[in-house]
Amino acid sequence: MAHMNPAPVLDAAKDKTMVLNMGPQHPSTHGVLRLLLEIDGETIVRMVPDIGFLHTGIEKTCEAKFYQQIVPLTDRIDYLCPMVNNLCYVLSVEKLLGLEIPPRAQWMRVLLAELQRISSHLVWLGTHAMDIGAMSVFLYCFREREDLLRIYEMVSGQRMMTSYFRIGGLALDPPLGFFEKVKKFLDGFSEKIDEYENLLTGNRIFIDRLKDVARVSAEDALAIGLTGPALRASGVDWDLRRDMPYCGYENFKFKVPTSKDGDVWARYVCRVEELRQSREIAKQALEGMPSGPIKADAPKVVLPDREKMKTQMEALIYHFKIVTEGFTVPAGEVYQAIESPRGEMGYYIVSDGTAKPMRVHMRSPSYANLQALPAMCEGRLIADVVAAIGSIDIVLGEIDR
Amino acid sequence: MPLAPAITDLEQLKDRPVLAALLAWDQNAVQEARFDRNELTVYVARESIRPACTQLKSQGLTDFLSDVTCADYYPRDPRFEIAYHLLSMKRKERVRLKVRLDGNDPVIESITALWPSANFFEREIFDLFGIRFLGHPYLRRLVMPEDWEGHPLRKDYPVEGYR
Prior knowledge:
Chain A is mostly helical. Helix content of chain A is 48%, strand content 12%. Chain A is built from 17 helices and 8 strands. In chain A, a hairpin with a 2-residue loop joins strand 2 and strand 3. Chain B is globular. In chain B, the strands form 2 sheets. Chain B has a 5-stranded mixed β-sheet with strand order 1-2-5-4-3. In chain B, strands 6-7 form a two-stranded parallel ribbon. In chain B, strand 3 and strand 4 form a beta hairpin. The longest helix of chain B is centred in the last third of the chain and has 12 residues. By secondary structure, chain B is an alpha/beta fold. Chain B is built from 4 helices and 7 strands. Chains A and B meet through helix 1, helix 3, helix 8, strand 6 and strand 7 of A and strand 3 and helix 4 of B.
């Protein structure tokens, strides 16, 4: 697999090929991705991705903050599904602390994580179709995404940077009318998926642009680190929600869509089916939503209720301590991985026993998935690059961090 | 739920498939093992990381490289610890291999030949920690600008950068 280790210097000295610079500002690179393409006519001979334009040093910033102050930073990594990032971070800190989370908080987390998967896939579907040339799908997808953003706003006060999951539970109980609104959305959503499929799945032009493009075999996919829908579309039946359950996913029934083809079309089919499965999981979470507390019983870690703070001296002291000094986390290291809409998202956190982490590393799915792009595109036409980028669904925020 | 204490005794852990395989292959390669918070960590000697990964891969004990990263334990020496997170999809189990590296001229063998996915991970470690990977096909800065001085994720590098 020589193509997976691209040689750096694009050798355009031979008369036949030329070097084309695609990005960093290009509408179909989904952010600031720069691709160096060595092309022979319309055919790509070699491709070298160049990243780092959005690098803000989040990992370094984390080392200077208290554990609870890092939650808002994780929103900004993958801005299409902030709650999934929150979830992965709080799960890893809870694992470090050995904290038990009440069932209601867990089910709320699952419900919102699945809604986030839906809204993230909607952005993918809209932009992917628009890259191919189907403009109207984008408008349909963003119509439903708007409903979802209103739901996030209802629960957290923010449309995008939600920071709703906290270490030890949730920030607030969901407001009145929240579950009804989610139910209304989920009930109507099945028809909406049919609507998108009516526009795309039988569309001759769309099929021609996607079928047999950017094929990846199962072995290559594993070797190069592909995860998520892109891996499942290559025929590897692996989903962390089912195979290594976290946050109570073992209580939910759902199918994991796979395909053997490994091309852009297969990835499209898998993701659209995931929309339906996520809706199923969200429905189950909604129907079985337990009652009870939304925060763990750990006064040294979780901020006390406002009511208690005003009536109990201890609660006030704990509140003051957590806000001013943070809370200490026993020394050790954990790696917690979850299934984000794009694949395996993992947080590796090393604690040295103080209130600030010694090291926080994010294993972001897009980062590993991007490495597959040269393998997908080399030997194909420039137009296929756009389809291939859309099919691995990268978010540059989490690639550069 | 209080945390269970970490198990560090090799005797108690040697029935774990990955550790058993590594011990059977080369006793000297395994320096230390720890089972903490449901995660198995095996410290491997610096020279044997690539052959150890080759062993695990060829025996079918791990089939996927999740992540490679590094942590700086400055001012302790050896200051760097590189962590390889390996996953077995068949057994649904993770293992973390770790290698200690000292601060002056940290060098380690690259595993890109085994798992091409290590390419970006190793480049990022080179970029942010200044650790060189022997045999890496293209070891250049990845996220920082090409002409950047210093390695930002080292502990002796200030959070605000050098002014």
